[in-house]
Amino acid sequence: MATIARNSNPALNEKAFQRVTEDEAGWAASTQQLEDAFAAPAATRGPVIGTDTMTVNGTVWATAALLVLVVAAGVFGWTSVDTTADSVSLPGWIFPVVLGAFGIAILTIFKPDLARFTAPAYALLQGAFLGAISGLYNSAYDGIVIQAVGLTIGVFAVMLFLFATRIIQVTDKLRMGIVAATGAIMLVYVVNMVLSLFDASVPFLHDTGPMGIGISLVIVGVAAFNLLLDFDFVE
After folding, report:
1. Which tens digits make up the pLDDT trace of 60-91?
2. DSSP code string of 61-119
3. d(CA 148, CA 220)
4. Is 111 exposed, middle or buried (0-12, 13-18, 19+ CB in 10 A)?
5. pLDDT tens for each residue of 16-34
6. 132: closest CA among 56, 50, 172, 76?
7. 83 bridge partner residues
8. d(C-alpha 5, C-alpha 183), whole Å
């Protein structure tokens, strides 16, 4: 189960990183490569050969740079939504952007060594799409996007603090529990999608009563704990 948890994202898993290290040092140089480099005698002449080694700090800075691209593209997507008093329409480029982002994601999964080029492109396309969809939802429910973004940042910061301070330690049992809970939630939503074809739904799943709110809180909690798996993988 630990392996499943670590391989939940097809673009960020150990097999993908292993493929890169087999081809070149790249962003994910293995521990053995580093040990061999440190054990080698110091070079006195000749060209200097560098290695681009993946580090936690490097991951943080790369994530920050991609976040800036997402936000910038999101602002563009938000302002591209045509809002009038009677109707709201998405920009015409929305579907090509979705298809382009999907294609880049597939390319990154099969060629992870291209991530330094595909990741910025994906961030821009995905940001534009999210910005447009957010503008659409905000026109229907004024203020909901700001609340959602604020809560997302808050949950991310809290889970990062709990992980960094080791208040919550990611053990094999915790990984197993998070993966099992995530799989159960996915199964419930699949069943709900099937039932929706027959004008039915899973009881309380979308209810606004105490039971429905409780179920939503559990789902949000499981999603938050999935961040711990991401932090653990990066580390």
Report:
1. 788 889 999 999 999 999 999 988 767 788 88
2. HHHHHHHHHHHHHHHHHHHTSEE-SS-EE--TTHHHHHHHHHHHHHHHHH-GGGHHHHH
3. 12
4. middle
5. 666 665 555 444 444 555 5
6. 76
7. 88
8. 11
